[in-house]
Amino acid sequence: MPVFSRGAVHLHYLDVGDPSAPAVLLLAPGGMNSVAMLWRRQLWDPIECLPDHRIIAMDQRNAGRSLAPVSGADGWHSYTDDQLALMDHLGLERFAVIGMCIGGPFILSLCRAAPRRVRAAVMFQPIGLWENRAEFFGLFDSWAAAIGPRHPEAREDDWARFREAMFGGPELFVMSMPETAAIKTPMLLFAGMDRHHPRQTAERLACTLPNASCVATWKAAVHVPDVHARVHGFLRAHAG
Description:
Elements: E1 3-6, E2 9-16, E3 23-27, H1 46-49, E4 54-58, H2 76-89, E5 95-100, H3 103-113, E6 118-124, H4 133-147, H5 156-167, E7 187-190, H6 199-208, E8 212-215, H7 224-237
Helix pairs in contact: 2-3
C-alpha cells in the first residue's frame, strides 16, 4: 500500500482501477480499527465488485499501518481532514463514498464539510447511539489501551477528551453531528440489526436526510445479487 504523509500523519491506502473512471472512496468497518482490508471479509466487497470505478480505500489514522499523533483535540473532524487531504493528494475533486459501520458517521462528516465534492454515498449498517453508549466507550478504551504505548505524547486527559468527542456529549444519534436535515447528498442506506449498528439509526437517517432511501433486509448471501444491483444502479444514477 502506498502512503500519503502530511506532517506527522501517515495514511496507507489502496488506489486500484482505471484512473479515468469515477472515483469511490471506501471507509471501512472496524470502529476505531477501520482498516481497508476489512472489506475483504464482507459479503459484498466493493474492492472486487466495482471494477468499473477507481477505488480508493484507506486505513484510518492509528488503524492498520496508518499513524498519527493523538491529542485531546482529536475527533470526527480529524478523520474528515485526513480523508479530504488524501483525495486532494490524488487530484480527485468529486467522488462517491461507500462506508460501513463507523463509515456512516465518517460519510456524514464528509458531506457536511465538503458537500460539493461528495456526489453520492452508500452506508452499510451505520453505527449510532441507541441505548448503547457504554459499548462504544468500551470499544474506544480497548483500542486506546492497545495503541497507547506507541503514543507517549497523549496523556490520560487527551484520551478522555478524544473519547468524549467521538462517542460522548449530547444524544447525537449518528455520533458525528447533531442533525442531518441539511445534508442534500443522495444516500443509499443498508440498515444494521445489532447493538453497534441499530436498525433505528438507518431508519431515522432515511427519515431525516432529504435524499435518502433505506434497504432493511440484505445481510445474507442470498441478498448479495440485489445489493450488487442496487449499489451499481445507485452509483450510475449519480455519476455526475
